[in-house]
Amino acid sequence: MAQLAVENVTLTFGGVAALSGVSLAVERGELVSIIGPNGAGKTSLLNVISGFYHPKQGRILFEGEEITHLSPHAITQRGIARAFQNIELFSGLTVLENLMLARHTHLRYGLLQAGLFYGRALAEEVRNRRLVEEVIDFMELEPYRKALVGNLPYGVRKRVEVARALALSPKLLLLDEPMAGMTLEEKEDMVRFILEIRARGTTVILIEHDLGVVMDISDRVYVLDFGQVIAEGRPEEVAKNPRVQEAYMGVEA
Amino acid sequence: MRNPWAQTGNYRTRYEQDASIFATHRELVSLLLFLGFLLVLPQFLSRTQVFILDLILVYSIAVLGLNITTGYAGLINIGQAAFMGVGAYTAALLAPAGLPFYLVLPAAGLTGAFFGYLVGIPSLRVKHLYLAMATLAFQVVFEWTVGHLPLLNQGGAMPLPRVSLLGYEVGFRNHYHFWYYVSFAVLVLLALFFRNLLRTKYGRALVAVRDNDRAADAMGMDPGRTKLFAFALGAFYAGVAGALYAYLSRAVVIEDYTFAVSIKLLAMAIVGGLGTLVGSFLGPAFLELLDVNMEALSNLIKALGFSVAGVDVASALRPLAFGLVIVLFLVFEPRGLYNWWRVVRSYFRTWPFRY
């Protein structure tokens, strides 16, 4: 059974259909990319999966449980993490605090214990700090640990965004254009991180415009156009698909 | 082993140490020395001078609460005085029934928190100015309700009984000194409580919903619950402050908890530095001392018999100075007095070295 199953999902805004009858299935440990022209509905699809939008029709199953109408935090608690396309970090907090926020639901102590900083509070903070430090280490963010996120350059903030999603210890990671606007070097780093995340057993759904990257690293690719899946398959199959070529390069005269 | 007293930087090697509040021994000791100074200070002051300090302490508690809701969680609250009033009237009802003040204070806080929770409910839907309107509505409803309730003497004075602690009777002579020490202890406890919260998930969650509640949602926390928590906690502090204010002024009257007081609290928070702990003490201290000095100055002017075309210059001086200070701070130092404090502190952190 697929880890994530999106079944026949339709999402409309007023009369405009952002998604119409989209289905996809992602197996545990896969790296699946979603591509398509601007406005094809890629980000809408991620928003539906992560609970920011609720579809008009269809349903979404994660590990056999229906999550279609759950709120974003309930979906996050079930193991789906998301890195946003337009960086949505907490700019008034440090990198460390941003990542510690991802551990929010894992920190088990009460208000009184926190206010008196007694009992489990310190031990829990330290235990989760260790996990966060592993992510910092992994994403090579050591120099920025105590820097305010708002003051960091764009490329680093993108990396913090992915790191924060990783700090949630997700089973499924949704990455929305993690490489947009990056330099070639930063892109190569990011690809390395994504491959490493996948190698550690986390399922990854990636939205990306750089087709070179997508074709190189994906197990399977879904192509969206005008809110519909127009092709699905291994990268080399998708690249040959005439409908995909049409969507990307237009109809031949 | 390096000498911890000569420490000018960060020697931390374990995560446990990194969770501590004070960077160096010197910071901790200078705070303790300052607290010790505040403990002996009233012994050298007259009753009226101690009364000013009492006001600063009580307002600091209310401003601290306001900073939690508005400064840290970013939820504009222009009804903080009404939450103080809720605490004050709780005290006015419970204290005559014979409840000792050390139980009245937490009870007033909890009543405040309950109303804070209720008023916070619109924050689940509306933001910014619209939320400010909701808190303003609470302020208006509070004043109207008190003004019409016979139970609360329709806003007229409700006296509070004299208190005693372990056989120590508080009378006319030691009244202000007694409440100085009570307010001081309460402020230190509540400030420490919040400072601790700031290094745990509760404090981080407040800032998270302020900076980006969409992302907070994606972190697995319920932003709505966090906002209600921010309102309840901020109103708890206001409730405690209101009860202290009631004891301090020996009676509860509606005039002490009006909209103008809410604005004054907000001004204190801004002058101190919105969203900072230290600013919660600097703001009230600065504005209260300014007020006292302006009063002295206007009395001096009155004594000189100076007036322009029949206008009473002296009595205009206090509101004028209040307004001017706020405008000057908003223009020249929007980060408040806290920013000056930050500069001084970072200088002394590495002293005697430059960096």
TrEMBL record, chain A:
Keywords: ATP-binding, Nucleotide-binding, Transport
Transmembrane segments annotated in the record for this chain: none
GO function terms (MF aspect): ATP binding
Signal peptide (from-to): none
SMART domains: AAA (SM00382)
Pfam families: ABC_tran, BCA_ABC_TP_C
Coiled coil: none
Chain ranges of the ABC transporter domain: 4-251
Classification via PANTHER family: ABC TRANSPORTER ATP-BINDING PROTEIN (PTHR45772:SF1), CONSERVED COMPONENT OF ABC TRANSPORTER FOR NATURAL AMINO ACIDS-RELATED (PTHR45772)
Name used for this protein in its record: ABC transporter ATP-binding protein
Automatic annotation (TrEMBL), chain B:
Topology within the bilayer: Multi-pass membrane protein
Superkingdom as given in the UniProt entry: Bacteria
Pfam families in the cross-refs: BPD_transp_2
Keywords of the record: Cell membrane, Membrane, Transmembrane, Transmembrane helix
Ranges in coiled-coil conformation: none
Transmembrane feature ranges: 28-45, 51-68, 75-95, 101-121, 128-146, 178-198, 228-247, 259-282, 303-332
InterPro entries for this protein: ABC_transp_permease, LivM-like
The protein's name in its UniProt record: Branched-chain amino acid ABC transporter permease
